Inverse folding.
């Protein structure tokens, strides 16, 4: 059914069912509203010059966070639809067809992992890492912008099926072969999944290279590796995981796409293809990915525990070692995702034991967090609430993880709701709680005022209670034999009350999210009362608190010299007033190339989803042309003179001079 | 200092590319015997032409190094000459590869025939695609050499291109031994 002009695209692909029409209309209204507001307030130029083309890591970080928040709402809608279906689906299908239900849990997984959690962490790293290591920007400001826009392009592509196609993949978030092969999945849904992961995966890879080089090469004088804040350490470990794991994802999804596009037989059921290869490869990426999601969070908790216990982190060296050991071990455990494959007792034992070993460095971290609090002068601000909540949930998640690391036990609960409960414990309780802790903690640094504490604490309680009400029933259901991804079940199983309880938990979580939205609105309204004038609202210890809030666009007028692990704490103790000797500062110019290249990459992705070869060729040509033009542009930086710096430092106005 | 940072980052990129090739090598190793009644490597591969490809690519790595020596000495003309030679050798390599591929397809041994051939075409084809990208990059570099003075940023860019070219040579050595060599023996 292919023709040259439109490939596999036919009129049937246009929206014609309630949810695709609804989503298309929704997107159209959103875009039109935003466009109208921008035109009325004459802010198009401002948006383009100050934000979209910016190479300032703080602005790129903010854009990552906003993008992640939007995708979070999208993912939560999916989650709600899944719960609702399962609460109602005793004995018969409820309001969703099996096909539609499968598409929803697939997109829920992909969106939450690739765009929400990773988006938030890249945002925080952009905000905080340059400030913590005493750098003015990242090693490659342009690549940073490109990484953001490739991720956004992937995010748009994963939602594009609403407009064109009408179907997402129905394979589960990892597109497990052979279900994702052409034979069983001839539609475009799997291709949408593949290409959105290709684009965002490339973006993550570029960002990871950028952060590694930044951390290795751009630290302030005197900051040796063992003087780096723990957030920088755990982020470095996470980025090392990305550069070694994400190429595996790229290769694997390309192999799958070759099967689908060129009729190859790498993972097919016929012609000698090997499906278990797909399981192995995708989890060789997938397990490190789990640690990519949690390692930066570990670092954030370390910073927060230390600040709010008013004590230096206990066992710094052991914390660094623990992060590195987790990094190394995470490569050696992928097979625990499919003990049931039948690899034999020896192989399963090896992977089971290595999996259990990860509990040791994780335990070291938990003990260090607790020891940091021990005899500290604890301040119970809301970031600390999230942190203590995390430690409790992490213990629970860790124990269920060690339980499943034992192959015989895993055979009982493999692919049951017990597993779903376990990894949601980790991703919500560890990664997402870390996001909220970090957001409350660093919000004043980036925006300039603190968030409302009372509402922040309420949101925490709603999230914590909602989490337990939601996922405790899933552990029980797992033991009762409920497998994951059921679109309906027999009422005689007695599962329905537990499913409904879980949905009640979801409603409590939604209340928590609404509280958070209200918290942000109230905080903006009351911002004059909560302005962060000192730049140090929490009595912080690391370098980011030594700048004003928000920091000037060049971060530091004078790059500090570092002599200890807690430079700002020592500065405060010694009442250190540095000599004000300003120097010329070289800064990156803003550039729209990141957007152009990502735009062409999006065109290539979309064209290949629908096999429109001429459009793919056109997109590729545009992409290559952009890169060549870029390579001849040497004029990428501008100089801010010492006099200008002095002027900005003495006046309170801090206007961006990016363009 | 700044160019140093860029070269360092480029090394990290090359390592990620190496991981990508590692996946393709692993896939090939697993699917090597899955010929599904189709031709095996032993029946298909023509060792002399693979050897010719190897020698051409190794020579091109050598001429690329000669060009880099000239670049570091800031001698534009010899640099241009040796890059042209490298480019010609790269084209020769690609021509032999494409000829070999089309011959396979004519004999009915296309990537659709068996898992072994899918893995073979993917691995060797990905390397070939990298070579094509390298050639395109080399054209851009030669333009730069022609248009721009040989200052530190230019030298750093040219150096990174040369690194890429040597990297592809390195990968090819493994393809030659594990795909063609072992395919012929075992």
């Amino acid at each position: 059914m292919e023709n040259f002009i439109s490939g596999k695209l036919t009129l049937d692909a246009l929206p014609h069912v309630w949810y695709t029409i609804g989503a298309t209309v929704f997107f159209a209204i959103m875009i039109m509203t935003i466009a109208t507001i921008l035109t009325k307030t004459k802010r198009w130029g401002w948006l383009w010059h100050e934000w979209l083309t910016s190479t300032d890591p703080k602005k790129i970080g903010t854009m990552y966070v906003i993008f992640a928040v939007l995708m979070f709402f999208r993912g939560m809608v999916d989650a709600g639809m899944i719960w609702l279906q399962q609460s109602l689906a005793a004995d018969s299908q409820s309001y969703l067809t099996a096909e539609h239900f499968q598409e929803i849990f697939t997109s829920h997984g992909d969106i939450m992992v690739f765009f929400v959690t990773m988006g938030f962490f890249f945002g925080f790293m952009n905000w905080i890492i340059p400030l913590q290591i005493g750098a003015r920007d990242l090693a490659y400001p342009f690549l940073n912008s490109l990484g953001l826009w490739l991720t956004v392009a992937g995010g748009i592509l994963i939602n594009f099926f609403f407009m064109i196609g009408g179907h997402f993949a129905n394979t589960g978030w990892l597109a497990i072969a052979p279900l994702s092969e052409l034979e069983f999945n001839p539609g475009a849904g799997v291709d949408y999944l593949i290409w959105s992961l290709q684009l965002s995966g490339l973006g993550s890879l570029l960002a990871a290279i950028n952060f590694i080089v930044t951390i290795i090469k751009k630290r302030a004088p005197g900051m040796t590796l063992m003087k780096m804040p723990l957030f920088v350490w755990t982020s470095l470990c996470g980025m090392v995981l990305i550069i070694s794991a994400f190429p595996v994802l790229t290769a694997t999804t390309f192999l799958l796409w070759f099967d689908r596009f060129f009729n190859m037989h790498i993972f097919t059921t016929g012609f000698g293809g090997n499906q278990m290869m797909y399981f192995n490869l995708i989890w060789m990426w997938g397990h490190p990915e789990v640690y990519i999601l949690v390692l930066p969070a570990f670092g954030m908790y370390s910073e927060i525990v230390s600040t709010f216990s008013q004590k230096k982190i206990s066992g710094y060296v052991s914390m660094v070692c623990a992060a590195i050991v987790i990094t190394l071990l995470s490569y050696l455990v992928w097979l625990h995702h499919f003990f049931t494959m039948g690899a034999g007792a020896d192989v399963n034992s090896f992977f089971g034991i290595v999996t259990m070993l990860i509990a040791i460095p994780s335990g070291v971290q938990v003990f260090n967090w607790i020891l940091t609090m021990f005899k500290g002068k604890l301040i119970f601000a809301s970031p600390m609430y999230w942190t203590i909540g995390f430690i409790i949930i992490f213990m629970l998640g860790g124990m269920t993880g060690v339980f499943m690391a034992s192959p015989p036990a895993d055979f009982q609960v493999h692919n049951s709701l017990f597993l779903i409960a376990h990894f949601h414990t980790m991703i919500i309780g560890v990664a997402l709680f870390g996001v909220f802790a970090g957001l409350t903690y660093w919000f004043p640094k980036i925006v300039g005022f603190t968030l409302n504490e009372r509402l922040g604490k309420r949101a925490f309680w709603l999230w914590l209670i909602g989490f337990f009400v939601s996922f405790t029933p899933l552990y029980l259901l797992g033991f009762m034999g409920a497998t994951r991804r059921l679109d309906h079940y027999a009422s005689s199983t007695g599962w329905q009350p537990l499913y409904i309880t879980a949905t009640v938990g979801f409603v409590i979580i939604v209340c928590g999210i609404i509280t958070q939205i209200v918290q942000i609105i109230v905080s903006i309204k009351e911002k004059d009362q909560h302005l962060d004038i000192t730049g140090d609202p929490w009595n912080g210890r690391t370098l980011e608190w030594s700048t004003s809030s928000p920091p000037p666009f060049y971060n530091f007028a004078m790059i500090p010299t570092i002599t200890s692990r807690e430079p700002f704490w020592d500065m405060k103790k010694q009442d250190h007033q540095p000599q004000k000797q300003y120097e010329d500062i070289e800064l990156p110019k803003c550039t729209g190339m990141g957007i152009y290249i990502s735009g062409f990459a999006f065109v290539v992705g979309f064209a290949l989803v629908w096999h429109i070869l001429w459009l793919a060729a056109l997109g590729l040509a545009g992409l290559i042309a952009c890169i060549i033009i870029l390579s001849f542009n040497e004029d990428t930086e501008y100089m801010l003179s010492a006099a200008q710096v002095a002027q900005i430092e003495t006046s309170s106005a801090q206007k961006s001079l990016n363009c | 200092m700044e160019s140093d940072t860029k070269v360092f980052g480029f090394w990290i990129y090359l390592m990620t590319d190496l991981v990508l090739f590692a996946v393709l090598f692993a896939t090939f190793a697993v699917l090597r015997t899955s010929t599904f009644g189709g031709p095996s490597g032993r029946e298909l591969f023509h060792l002399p032409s693979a050897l010719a490809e190897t020698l051409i690519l190794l020579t091109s790595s050598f001429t690329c190094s000669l060009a880099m020596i000239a670049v570091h000495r800031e001698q534009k003309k010899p640099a241009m000459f040796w890059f042209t030679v490298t480019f010609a050798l790269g084209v020769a390599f690609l021509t032999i590869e494409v000829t070999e591929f089309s011959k396979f397809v004519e004999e009915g041994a296309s990537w659709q025939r068996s898992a072994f051939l899918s893995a073979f075409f993917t691995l060797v084809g990905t390397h070939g695609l990298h070579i094509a990208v390298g050639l395109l990059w080399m054209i851009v570099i030669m333009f730069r050499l022609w248009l721009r003075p040989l200052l530190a940023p230019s030298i750093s860019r040219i150096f990174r291109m040369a690194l890429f070219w040597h990297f592809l040579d390195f990968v090819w050595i493994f393809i030659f031994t594990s795909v063609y060599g072992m395919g012929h023996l075992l």
